[in-house]
Design a protein that fits this description.
five-stranded mixed beta sheet, Maf protein
């Protein structure tokens, strides 16, 4: 029988404490650890300073509850990469050159057609008795170390490398060494088109009598995520019962579950219905196309995208009559519809999806203030357009416009 394992996560980097780079490794690790039954008790963010790293490490070792300590960052070849030195100091281990790591660095550089730089030898210095976890995506290898009844896992800071090492190597290592007991069931349900107050009103009657269920509402500018959690015996059954009840109540307002995204769901629907899509984007600047092409295999349904920011581009690339733009304005229901029709016809697709709007901070008027966005969808049968009014800064308006356009298409696909 396993035990409940608690973890301490420490992310290292001056760029994190200065605010220049957003910290994402901690959030990723929390989710992955939760999936194997490890609870994160604490997360710390520190700069590339020896005293700071040592301080949080020593604090973690003082805790009898913590069995796993994970550090990310500070394993590079430059002078400010000092994490291994700090780990060695706190654990009382000597730093030694690892032939295994050195060979990995050489092989990785050779595979890129580059020579190993002398400064990279520093990355092969790791604490004595550390177990190497080779980095599938870079030169900085991770490693694990046992000390005072705890396991320390030290990973590089680049998020893509953290993900690769964690999924391919670290999780299996943790399960093998600590045998965590998964006593928790978690499910996330993503909702569009309803405010959290309305969602709560709709689902509360069905969830009220489900004992042991915890429901959290996680709103963002573009969606609301419901987090369902239950612990102990029967946890999976409790969460499944709640998820079924919510699905019954909310229906098509639910666009994805778990790690699913709107672009993935929409792409799956296009593929399922054997339909294709072309885009015409103005205020989103190609952002919808970027979202769609994140999904592997999207070439099965995505034909092409037009970024027509200027009026001239709309006329030349989408064959829109300049007189239409002069009469109604580039940000209008009529022009959005014409953009969608042009994308569909010229892009040789079943659907043409278009968006035009005023993202701000300037350019608005009394009739069309900043945040005004038109989304249009064209098919062989008909073309429809809808006006949206979004709040927020330029980035938020653009993100909401992308989401609204994809949701406009998804709704068409699920109801047709």
């Amino acid at each position: 029988m396993g035990e409940i394992v608690k973890a301490d996560i420490i992310t290292v980097g001056n760029e994190l404490v200065s605010g220049d780079v957003q910290e994402t490794n901690g959030r990723f690790l929390i989710g992955r650890l939760r999936g194997i039954g490890v609870k994160t008790a604490r997360i710390s963010v520190v700069g590339d300073e020896d005293w700071a790293i040592c301080d949080v490490l020593e604090n973690a070792f003082r805790s009898h509850e913590i069995k796993l300590i994970i550090l990310t960052g500070g394993l590079g070849p430059t002078r400010d990469d000092i994490t291994s030195r700090s780990v060695a100091k706190v654990t009382g281990k000597r730093l030694v050159f690892s032939d295994e790591v050195l060979a990995h660095i050489r092989e990785t550089m050779e595979s890129r057609g580059e020579e190993m730089h002398p400064s990279q030898e520093k990355q092969a210095l790791i604490p004595q008795k550390a177990k190497v976890l080779k980095n599938p995506g870079g030169t900085a290898c991770a490693y694990t170390l046992h000390h005072h009844g705890k396991i320390i896992a030290v990973l590089p800071g680049i998020p893509s490398e953290v993900r690769l090492i964690t999924d391919q190597l670290l999780l299996a290592e943790i399960e093998s060494e600590l045998h965590p007991q998964k006593s928790e069931s978690v499910k996330k349900i993503h909702v569009l088109g309803l405010p959290e107050t309305k969602i709560e009103e709709m689902i509360s009657p069905d969830l009220r009598d489900i004992a042991g269920l915890q429901v959290a509402f996680l709103p963002s500018p573009t969606q609301v995520t419901l987090s369902l959690v239950a612990e102990g015996a029967g946890a999976e059954k409790i969460v499944s019962q709640a998820a079924d009840a919510i699905s019954e109540r909310l229906g098509n307002y639910i666009f994805a579950e778990g790690d699913g995204s709107l672009e993935e769901t929409t792409g799956n629907l296009l593929q399922l219905r054997r339909k294709t899509l072309s885009l015409a984007e103005s205020c989103t600047g190609g952002g919808i196309g970027e979202k769609i092409t994140r999904i592997p295999g999207c070439s099965a349904y995505f034909h092409m995208g037009f970024v027509t920011y200027s009026n001239e581009a709309k006329s030349k690339l989408l064959d829109i009559d300049p007189a239409l733009i002069d009469k109604y304005g580039a940000v209008s229901k009529e022009v959005a519809a014409a953009m969608a029709q042009g994308a569909r016809k010229i892009g040789r697709a079943d659907f043409g999806l278009a968006v035009t709007g005023i993202a701000g901070p300037e350019g608005g008027s009394e009739d069309k203030p900043v945040g005004t966005v038109y989304v249009a969808l064209s098919s062989d049968e008909h073309t429809m357009a809808k006006r949206f009014s979004f709040s927020g800064d330029r980035a938020e308006v653009r993100e909401r416009a992308k989401q609204a356009a994809l949701e406009f298409l998804r709704r068409k696909l699920v109801t047709s």
